[in-house]
């Protein structure tokens, strides 16, 4: 089933388009929003299901590394903030699953594809969170990278996706600020605390750069997705913006970005920086990162443990429906 959902149409936009496809592309070019019941090319629908579904899974799996620290947050205030953030991520997953459902795929199908490993979630969540400073680095860098990618998606061509993004981005901004706030506290603390903050930056820097996807020359979907305005920028454009935004923030903290080749390039008006190790990226998205088995195992267990509740809910809904029908 999923194989049919994910295959995207290749080819150069406009070449060999039918009249209907050309009219659709013209609507996209005029920045009109496409709404659920309107005609759309099958490849557009499948690409959206793949991207929105992957994004929804990322929000849900993304609760795990931070959920790991709720019970160990250093103060009641930090615990309350982290709890709220992790709950927000659950909400983001729900908006996005709902947006995907408007394209004719059910939530059960999407979850089945996640649990069976057919569908991806963001590579970043396959790295462990080892210390409290990692909560700072995740908020600052991971949510920072997520915002960089998602703010332009508020203008994406599919209406339900664009609208979901507006609220998600507001909440992600708070997440990024709370992470940076943790980093500021750690960096103004004892030498040991500052060393923890530096260690967290060292471990999360390159995985954060990987969140934007492979370099443009290796990106399979960018060209068509950008023609359809499912993506608004290329992977490399957003990665560059992220580096340019984040380096001064690291300097303000007194931390060192773990890249000896990082340099301001006056001519391009941005930093030159080292690429991540792409062999590591491909290993992680193929299921062989440090925490893939643990993360997927936790999601499958949650799904199986919740079966009794879903069954009860459905049985109740069926009974209520039968009573309504009998009364009519
Ligand atoms: N992790 C896992 N897989 C990735 C990836 C990543 N960081 N980057 C790329 N890939 C996969 C793609 O899914 C594709 O595989 P597929 O064909 O099997 O689906 C392959 O690598 C080739 O990459 P492309 O560049 O061709 O793929 P896309 O055009 O889809 O671009 C993307 C990748 C930039 C991540 C794009 O899908 C996107 O913008 N998605 C929406 C945003 C999103 O999913 N964000 C998740 C971040 S985490 C988050 O938001 C949680 C928050 O709380 C922090």
TrEMBL record:
GO terms for cellular component: cytosol. Residues 1-20 are annotated as: Disordered. Residues 1-10 have a biased composition (Polar residues). The keyword Transcription regulation does not apply. Gene3D superfamilies: 1.20.1260.10. Keywords: Oxidoreductase. Pfam families: PaaA_PaaC. GO terms for biological process: phenylacetate catabolic process. GO terms for molecular function: phenylacetyl-CoA 1,2-epoxidase activity. SUPFAM superfamilies: Ferritin-like. Its EC number is 1.14.13.149. The keyword Manganese does not apply. PANTHER family: 1,2-PHENYLACETYL-COA EPOXIDASE, SUBUNIT A, PHENYLACETIC ACID DEGRADATION PROTEIN PAA. This is 1,2-phenylacetyl-CoA epoxidase subunit A. The gene is paaA.
